[in-house]
Design brief:
7 helices; about 0% strand
């Protein structure tokens, strides 16, 4: 009995620590995604085709001519019209596809993929630990772990991801390393 209890406590510690690390990672990932979205929005708002890099000056002239002919309307310069389209319509469409409502989302399948190593470890450990118990105990543990693995943990990780995004949006930091150095305690608390 003592050996089984020690084994169980080791299992709880290893799995708990693994899920804690996943939550920290999800918080950082959410923060990074939010910071990248803010940077993308700033880049699109200040976009100017004339400032874009081009390998060859001849290519630049040809590209400007093509854009100018496609977007010139009502006496407006085609390059200015293109810049305006990128700064408004394209920016709105891109940001809408990246962000739904007020939440930053991560697909459930992605969460399960990230958790796959811990899920395998968890079910393997439970199988080994409960081999000598009754079928009812095995089934009960399997159901409880399946519910925790496929419902509770993904929800907690999604909340950590969203919390990281909200922390980053409210921090006014330009990039993830600066944000992380300023918000270590908040990141640990969010996880």
């Amino acid at each position: 009995e003592t050996e089984a209890l020690i084994l169980f406590l080791v299992f709880v510690f290893v799995i708990g620590f693994g899920y804690f690390l996943i939550c920290i990672g999800a918080t950082m990932f959410g923060a990074d995604m939010a910071l990248q979205r803010v940077a993308l929005q700033k880049h699109l708002e200040s976009f100017d085709v004339r400032a874009a890099g081009c390998y060859s000056a001849a290519d630049r002239v040809e590209i400007y001519a093509a854009i100018g002919s496609m977007y010139a309307r009502n006496g407006m310069d085609g390059l200015d019209a293109f810049n305006q389209m990128v700064r408004t319509a394209l920016k709105d469409e891109v940001l809408q596809r990246l962000h739904h409502g007020d939440r930053t989302t991560l697909p459930y399948s992605t969460l399960l993929l990230v958790m796959l190593p811990l899920v395998c470890l968890q079910f393997g450990f439970i199988n080994a630990a409960l081999r000598e118990t009754s079928a009812f105990s095995q089934a009960l543990c399997f159901v409880l772990i399946a519910v925790a693995t496929f419902a509770v943990v993904p929800s907690v990780v999604a909340m950590a991801f969203d919390r990281g995004a909200r922390l980053a949006r409210s921090s006014n930091q330009p990039d993830l390393p600066t944000f992380a150095s300023q918000a270590r305690l908040a990141i640990a608390w969010a996880a």
